[in-house]
# Entry
Amino acid sequence: MNMIEIKNLIKTYDNRRVLDDINLSIKQGETMVIMGGSGCGKSTLLRHIISLARPDSGQILIKGQDITVMNEARLVEVRKRFGMLFQSGALLNSLTVGENVALPLVEHTKLDRKIISIIVKMKLELVGLTGFENLMPSQLSGGMKKRVGLARAIAMDPELVFYDEPGAGLDPITTAVVDKLIMDLTKKLGITSIVVTHEMKSAFRIADRIAVLYKGKVVDIGTPEYIRNSKHPYVNQFINGAPDGPEPLRRSKDDYLSRLTSFDED
Amino acid sequence: MTWQNNSFGSAIKKLSEVVNSTLYHVTSFALLNWQVIKLMSIGLVKPGKIFKRRHIFEQMFLMGVQSIPIVAVTSLFLGMTLAMLTTYTLADFGAEVWVAGLVGVGFTRELGPLITAIVVAGRVGASISAELGTMTVSEEIDALDTMGINPVRYLVLPRFIALLIMMPCLAILSDYLGIIGGYLISAMKLDMSFAYYKDLTIEALKLKDVFTGLIKSVSFAVIISMIGCYQGLIVSGGAEGVGQGTTKSVVNSLIFVIAADSFFTALFTYVIV
# Structure
């Protein structure tokens, strides 16, 4: 069965179609990388899958349940089963590292304090941060914050983990470490992973399949090998990092002369 | 001719934008209030699930206990000022004895709750919206949402309840210190003894004066905490947005506090006598 099934998803902001009829299915246990340039709608797509935003039309089925029509209470039940790693880690700055990782457990389970503290230690161990429980997030580096965020995301033993730009703002070595963690978790714990990124290197490293988004549409989808040899002109431009192509160098719809000689009314 | 049409058109457009955004804010603010009411009523049935005692106490300390010095100092000075002004005016009638009653009634009914609310709006309201605003900007609110933790329950409710409890306490403190301020001036200028001043104050005060003041301060607590939280949660656009949200929170709180004060004064003066 497919873990996630997205059907005809459409979202419009201010007359601009950010998501234009997206269809995507993600199998259980696979790592799906959603790739695309800035402003292609990949973050918006992620916000819809984790139901932080509601679509104009279309369905998002997680394990066969449509989350776009759910009420808050049922949504909470679904959300307990997935984890999310935010771009900056999104740790609560008023809590210690340990309290951050423990937060979902404290809020959603009736486990004893001691058991929670053991789980927290285990999760921190998994991301390679043993003994960091009592530090505050402000004392950590960007890469460490992200790793703590990852520990928090897997605190409830989710079946599904989302990653928003896991490599953003990290040096190549730390990026590789985070990528390795993602791969390990997926293999060891059998987690289904959805990774949103525009970094080619890590995308090809961790992906089972890659979906390329362009102007709110999925233009190509397949294994890393398939994407590397894709015939689609935009995918080609994206992978080779060419400045000009289907995505033009200059963003201008009007004629050059008329643009120069026009004056704004306001 | 054309520019006139244009400016008229753009004025209409601006007006409709203003109306639209006002409507939007009014409805979403009402929605936030509704969520708080709903959570409070669920909390009456299952308190353990909704109210986290630790969070509420933490906020009570931050909002209430830490506001004591500033509330105390401002109230003392305001009490002294009021006493000085009244002795100066009442001296013409030889009626300086009335200072005690005036300060007492003035503070318990009006100035105590009001000066507390103004100080708290500046200190606590600003800090609520700056904190929640920063959390919004750094995706912490989204993170709570995706963990299945309701941000309104986790963040708004403890602040709301904490201020609801602490505000009347601070108002009572302010009442006391205002009256002490009045006594200091009376002692210096009129050579009144403390016992005499106390008797005069108690004679002038009715229980109703104290109660109406406390009812006011509860309503101010609701205004300050809800506006602070709302302005924090709707922040967008980074550090600049947080700054704007904080400013709006303080300005709006002050406006609504003073409006509510006038409303309640009218209510207790003319309707419920």
